[in-house]
Amino acid sequence: MKKLLATSAVLASALALSACQSTPTKGDLPAEVQPALEAQMQLVDISKAHLGKVYLRPVNGGVQVFGQLTGLHPGSTYAIHIHENGSCGNSGKDAGGHFNPLNKQHGNPNSLESHGGDLPNITADANGVANMNFLRRDISVDPQMANSVYNRSFIIHAGVDDYTSQPSGNSGDRMACGVIKAY
Ligand SMILES: [Cu+2]
User: Fold this and answer.
1) If you write DSSP's letter for every residue of 114-164 in order, what string do you get?
2) Span from the CA of 72 to the centroid of ligand 1 (angstroms)
3) Ligand 1 center to 158 CA (angstroms)
4) pTM of the prediction?
5) Best exposed site among 76, 115, 131, 150 by fewest CB in 10 Å?
6) Where are the domains positioned within the chain?
7) Topology annotation, domain 35-182
8) Please, are residues 119 and 82 in contact by the beta-carbon 8 Å criterion?
């Protein structure tokens, strides 16, 4: 847990600094936070506005899912999940259902009795910014693995995941989408 928090702090400072102040070896994060995969989140409406990136990297015990999203409604809470298809077409519907390699019921992401793609709700601050940092124990960033999230998609919903309703927590419309690609 300490490590996750430390990474979060590094990410926060990395995002706060302009690109010219750090020297990333690859992509837009500093060398000590090199993720394996990333997704650029964009609204599914006609604007296709960018909301920021979500990153994934292997850590002890699973995969860390982290990032900072902007342009959200201040104070609002949103569901975010990994959906099974690497496509954001048709207003995000092409992403399909939740990524669920172990054929579980939808549930609380803190329990392994949930979809591999289930994640905690995110809440925007007064500036419409939401940080996420979560360890999911039953997924992989390795494209060769059956539980790999490579070439799947993150979906942000307009509503809140109740972690209970089937099959997707009564999370509402698909609001933003990002295909998970190599970092
Ligand atoms: Cu979803």
Assistant:
1) S-TTB---EE--TTS-EEEEEEETT-BS-TTSTTB-TT-EEEEESS---S-
2) 17
3) 10
4) 0.87
5) 76
6) 35-182
7) Immunoglobulin-like (2.60.40)
8) yes
